[in-house]
């Protein structure tokens, strides 16, 4: 079965709810269209008809976090002129518990207009994994609807916008429909409508408009789902809203859309609604993902540490405690993903448990997020509370990360039904040799060795700062890992000398040139000379001639511009490498990647998708969509801030009382000012002039500003 395509669908999101429809706003019973909440499709049909006909769509646009406006025409109504005189604006608004739609019908006709308005509705309660794999789901058993007065109370946060799952419609009062499964109840109310239940459920309004009249119809959907494993985040937004002015207006528009999308992806766990993390992406991954949630929180650190703190605490509470080959759990390990039920993949009978730990990189990344949040000013008390998690994560690194004792971190799916590849490129064919052949596990990925090196140094810094033993051991670990990596991973090939993508089960270097090696920049694993060699390769045409950084060079045997991990462009991947290049001083290379992402953002309406095709820019005038990409995606949206932060180059170290300023020379984004940055809770503003001169205001009292040219050499 084939995964349904979604590149041409419009998504409206307010986590944990998301709606996907056609560009006309219609939700049809096809593919991945529908309203989803917490891994279930709770509405599979919402089709608007006037006099039995579908209006003609003319446009749509986002209208803020969780809102989309769809505009259409009813040209058969009103005056018989060349200009349309009856217009419909369908505004869809999602709340964390459901959905609300306002249908505004406006007539500029000189005659009265009458019409019958119908919204057809259905629900199949399909599991997200069944939708993703193209399987037809069998709806769970449904029960008769309870009378409206007996409906479970919906939390105040659900009002207005609310949505819910349903399977068989029954009347529940005037203008009301209800569906129920074993765990979920959905109620639809059409205000001022007639409701028809049964297999063809619908809401109906009879409308009469006087000349130049208008009317607004409203229907809403609310879900009660106590079995959901993720819930809406509560409280104020966890990050500041920056004040941005830029000569390159693309970065302003990209940040505006990205921050709206990030606001809509906020989630928490039941029982801890104040610990916010970001759901990975819509529609497939709107839940807790260790790696994705960590990277997104790390990218947002310039706007404050509260999101990082919530993400760290949520993952620490689920930190592994025992060895379990089925789930991939190990003591101290950070989990990969959380679902309400086991998740069946569409390949080789693989089935992930609801709480799955099959990730090789989330644990070192968790350590570095804690360290980086501390440097940006996360309060010491919050850091101290997470030190047991730090020690446990370092324990995993020491005792369980190296399964065969060769000194490198590797993964293998010991249970046989989990992910075959467990780095960020986790598709089955992601790790390939230069000739296109697939590597067999256990696999030691290049970037993961860099993450481990950085985590060891970050862990040592935290241990020292908080008076805990063991720091020297981890510095020695990092030094030895760098020496081993230098001796084993570097290869000579058609591209020259570069780090291999990985080592396979026979310890052979997997000699494809990929974006993975860009993640080594900034980890301290490479010497200055080695970093320069990596930077040059990443900026070469085979890697960077598209709209960002390709995941695999076009000169490799496994390359395809529409491969998920072997030739496509992922904005978050490009942004991570861009930040590494900027931090290491490779400014021209960083500027090339920034320009590629901004050009792509313009083509995608400033909502960067999960990934897109890696075609060369000389071949296509705009990037080709990857047809099954999530959009919005947390780390793709957060990449917008990474572009701006790399250009500004502010790197605070609050515990040391100093901040390094290293903006990209040449003002690659033109004049740029960003206010509302957060350093230890202070509102900081950084400005870059057209000539590249930089200034900083608002740093905490006593914090010393160090310009790049005065920084200690690496």
CATH homology group of one domain: Glycoside hydrolase, family 65, N-terminal domain
End-to-end Cα distance: 52 Å
Largest sheet: 8 strands, antiparallel
Number of helices, where a helix is a run of at least 4 consecutive DSSP H or I residues: 14
Overview of this protein structure:
Helix 2 packs across helix 14. It contains 14 helices and 35 strands. With 714 residues, the protein is an alpha+beta fold. A hairpin with a 5-residue loop joins strand 28 and strand 29. The longest helix has 20 residues. Among the domains are: 215 residues, Glycoside hydrolase, family 65, N-terminal domain (Beta-galactosidase, Chain A, domain 5), CATH 2.70.98; 52 residues, no CATH class. An eight-stranded antiparallel sheet has the order 6-7-8-9-16-13-12-11, with no helix packed on it. A four-stranded antiparallel sheet has the order 1-2-3-4. It is globular. 25% of the residues lie in helices and 25% in strands.
């Amino acid at each position: 079965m084939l995964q349904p395509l979604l590149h041409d669908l419009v998504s409206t999101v307010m986590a944990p709810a998301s709606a996907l429809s056609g560009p006309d706003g219609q939700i049809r019973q096809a593919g991945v269209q529908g309203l989803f909440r917490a891994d279930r499709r709770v509405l599979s049909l919402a089709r608007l008809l006037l006099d039995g006909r579908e209006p003609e769509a003319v446009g749509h646009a986002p209208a803020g976090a969780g809102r989309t406006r769809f505009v259409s025409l009813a040209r058969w109504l009103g005056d018989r002129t060349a200009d349309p005189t009856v217009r419909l604006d369908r505004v869809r608004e999602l709340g964390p518990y459901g959905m609300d739609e306002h249908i505004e019908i406006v007539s500029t006709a000189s005659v009265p207009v009458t019409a019958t308005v119908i919204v057809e509705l259905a629900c199949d309660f399909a599991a997200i994994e069944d939708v993703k794999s193209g399987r037809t789901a069998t709806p769970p058993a449904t029960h008769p609807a309870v009378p409206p007065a007996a409906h479970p109370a919906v939390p105040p946060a659900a009002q207005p916008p609310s949505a819910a799952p349903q399977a068989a419609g029954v009347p529940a009062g005037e203008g009301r429909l209800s569906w129920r499964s074993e765990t979920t109840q959905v109620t639809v109310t059409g205000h001022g409508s007639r409701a028809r239940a049964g297999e063809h459920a619908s809401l109906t309004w009879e409308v009469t408009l006087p000349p130049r009249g208008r009317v607004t119809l409203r229907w809403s959907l609310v879900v009660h789902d106590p079995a959901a494993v993720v819930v809406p985040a509560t409280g104020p937004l966890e990050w500041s809203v920056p004040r941005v002015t830029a000569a390159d207006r693309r970065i302003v528009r990209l940040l505006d859309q990205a921050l709206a999308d990030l606001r809509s992806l906020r989630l928490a766990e039941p029982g801890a609604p104040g610990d916010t993390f970001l759901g990975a992406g819509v529609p497939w991954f709107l839940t807790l993902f260790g790696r994705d949630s960590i990277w997104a929180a790390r990218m947002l650190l310039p706007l404050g540490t509260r999101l990082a703190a919530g993400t760290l605490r949520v993952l620490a509470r689920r930190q592994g405690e025992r060895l379990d080959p089925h789930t991939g759990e190990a003591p101290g390990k950070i989990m990969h993903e959380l679902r309400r039920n086991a998740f069946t993949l569409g390949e080789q009978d693989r089935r992930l448990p609801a709480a799955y730990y099959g990730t090789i990189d989330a644990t070192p990344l968790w350590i570095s997020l804690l360290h980086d949040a501390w440097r940006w000013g996360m309060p010491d008390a919050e850091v101290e509370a997470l030190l047991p998690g730090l020690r446990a994560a370092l324990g995993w690194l020491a005792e369980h990360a190296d399964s065969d004792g060769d000194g490198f971190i590797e993964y293998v799916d010991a249970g046989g039904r989990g992910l075959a590849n467990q780095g960020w490129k986790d598709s089955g064919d992601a790790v390939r040799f230069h000739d296109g052949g697939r590597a067999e596990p256990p696999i030691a990925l290049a970037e993961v060795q860099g993450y481990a090196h950085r985590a060891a140094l970050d862990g040592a810094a935290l241990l020292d700062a908080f008076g805990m033993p063991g720091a020297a051991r981890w510095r020695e670990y990092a030094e030895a890992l760098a020496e081993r990596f230098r001796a084993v991973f570097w290869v000579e090939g058609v591209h020259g000398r570069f780090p291999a993508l990985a080592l396979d089960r026979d310890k052979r270097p997997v000699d494809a040139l990929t974006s993975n090696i860009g993640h080594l920049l900034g980890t301290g694993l490479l010497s200055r000379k080695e970093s320069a060699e990596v930077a040059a390769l990443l900026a070469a045409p085979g890697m960077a001639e598209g709209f960002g950084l390709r995941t695999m060079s076009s000169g490799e045997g496994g390359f395809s511009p529409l491969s998920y991990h072997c030739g496509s462009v992922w904005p978050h991947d490009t942004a991570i490498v861009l930040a590494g290049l900027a931090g290491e001083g490779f400014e021209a290379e960083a500027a090339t990647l920034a320009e590629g992402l901004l050009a792509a953002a313009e083509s995608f309406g400033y909502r960067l998708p999960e990934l897109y095709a890696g075609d060369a820019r000389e071949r296509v005038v705009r990037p080709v969509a990857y047809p099954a990409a999530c959009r919005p995606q947390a780390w793709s949206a957060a990449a917008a801030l990474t572009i701006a932060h790399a250009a500004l180059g502010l790197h605070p170290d609050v515990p040391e009382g100093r901040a390094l300023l290293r903006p990209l020379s040449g003002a690659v984004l033109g004049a740029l000012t960003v206010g509302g940055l957060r350093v230890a809770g202070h509102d900081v503003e950084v400005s870059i002039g057209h000539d590249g001169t930089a200034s900083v205001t608002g740093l905490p009292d006593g914090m010393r500003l160090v310009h790049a040219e005065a920084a200690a050499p690496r």
